[in-house]
Amino acid sequence: MKKSAFILCAALSISACSLFPPPYKVPVTQGNLITQEQLSQLKVGMSESQVTYLLGNPMLIDTFKPNEWHYLYASLYAEPGTKHSDADDLVLIFSDGVLTQIKNN
Question: Where is the Outer membrane protein assembly factor BamE domain (predicted)?
């Protein structure tokens, strides 16, 4: 009798956790939110200051490749109303302060 009561209590205790709704998770967005309009204005031949004015500061400038700027965007626990970037991984390559290559991964 005691054993069956213990098993019943344990089963109810474990299943009680599933009765609650899942916890709220805050949507976390990090990086540069880049729109299609900004991408259309981005042209080869622009200076570094023009690109910074258009897109903002890059998320990452590699120490070993200072002429390569990375604009990254990531979103965790996104909801339907969360804004999304049109370029999640944009790499801009400069040569002598002038934009020479655009990679939109």
Answer: 31-100
Residue 100 structure tokens: 């020479």
Mean pLDDT (the chain) is 85
* Residues sharing a CB contact under 8 Å with residue 46, sequence separation 6 or more, in sequence order: 54, 98, 99
Element (H, E) at 101: strand 98-104
Amino acid at 8: L
| Integer Cα distance of 88 and 84 in angstroms | 9
Instruction: Name the nearest CA neighbour of 100 among 58, 51, 45, 55.
Output: 45
- In the chain, the domains with their CATH numbers are 24-104 (3.30.1450.10)
Strands (E), 56-97: 60-61, 68-76, 89-95
pLDDT for residue 12? 67
29 backbone dihedrals φ, ψ, rounded to 5°: -120, 135
